[in-house]
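Structure tokens please, single chain.
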Amino acid sequence: MSRFVHVALELGTLAEVEAALHALALPLERSDDGVALRGSVECGDEPVTLRLPAGTLDAAEDFGFVADAHGLATLVCGEPDRAHLQRALVQPLLACVAQARVAAAAGLQITALEREADGTVRLRVQPRARRS
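Here you go.
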């Protein structure tokens, strides 16, 4: 284990990141009271709101997200996983958040997200149900 680092990514809010993690079918645990990333001799446990287990996206340690002072999601991970997660996780998350924002702005909701081997993303959308 290593010390935890907080990586400001400007991805969006915790709610947007949580929705994107679900769209990417990544295993996720949520606790508004905080769930601990397990520390070691070098550092204590670190509470996060969204936690993903070790092994997710080949990460050596568990990692998660908290909201910063501006309400934006911040990645919390072990130092050795930082560069790997920035490559393997950040781009797909940014894409999912952006797609959801575009769909919402157009009055649509995403019903399915399919990722092709070549990186192409296909979205299935439908009009949002009108509230009366």
